[in-house]
């Protein structure tokens, strides 16, 4: 029997939850290893051996360790190609390239404004930090422009990379979930017909619902 892969970090972290959603889609056994970030455990030498930038998640599968949530997800899909959702990272060069294209769009265009908004609107109040209205306005405008592109794309195709749910859609779940469920900026998504329909579909997957449940436990 193979031992479960290990994910280091709290499920409430967006990057950790991306990896958890992927593991659940792929039906791969995993263990979440707590990292006490308020005590700075992610900056300790032991942790830096796995994640040299001192961020979560870190990931271990047998003797190998990896960091960067999107790279970890690609690895899981390739290594466990025959398990769970087999089409999650495509099954042909073109399908993979199309998924990579939208994964890049998520990482380069969607993530910067959406993670800034998640920090300002969801985490800063919890951490008793002052919000910056200028940063909020600027990132809201940037995200709106990105979502205009998505609206167009999702008018032509059911999901970002084609007609099947893929890693590209999954990668958007963590930040979108905070924006829709914790902040009052959900209209950025729901006011756009195709984006709203897409959000309803991707967020109602069992894999994501399980991650949201994991985020509720302390
Ligand atoms: N690009 C990285 C981002 C990781 C990241 O930003 N992690 C945050 C939590 S979501 C973190 O560890 N923040 C603490 C810090 O930077 O000190 C990934 O996708 O894995």
Automatic annotation (TrEMBL):
E.C. numbers: 2.5.1.18
Does Cytoplasm show up as a keyword for this record?
yes
This enzyme catalyses: RX + glutathione = an S-substituted glutathione + a halide anion + H(+)
What Pfam families does the record point to? GST_C, GST_N
Q: Where is the GST C-terminal domain?
A: 92-218
One GO term in the molecular function aspect is: glutathione transferase activity
Q: Where in the cell is it found?
A: Cytoplasm, Cytosol
- GO CC term, one of those recorded: cytosol
Q: Does the keyword Transferase apply?
A: yes
Record InterPro entries: Glutathione-S-Trfase_C-like, Glutathione-S-Trfase_C_sf, Glutathione_S-Trfase, Glutathione_S-Trfase_N, GST_C, GST_Phi_C, Thioredoxin-like_sf
Keywords, comma-separated and alphabetical: Cytoplasm, Detoxification, Transferase
GO annotation (BP), single: glutathione metabolic process
Q: Where's it mainly located?
A: cytoplasm
Ranges for domain GST N-terminal = 3-84
The EC category is: transferase
Q: Give the family per the record.
A: Belongs to the GST superfamily. Phi family.
Q: What is this protein called?
A: glutathione transferase
Write down the species. Rhamnella rubrinervis
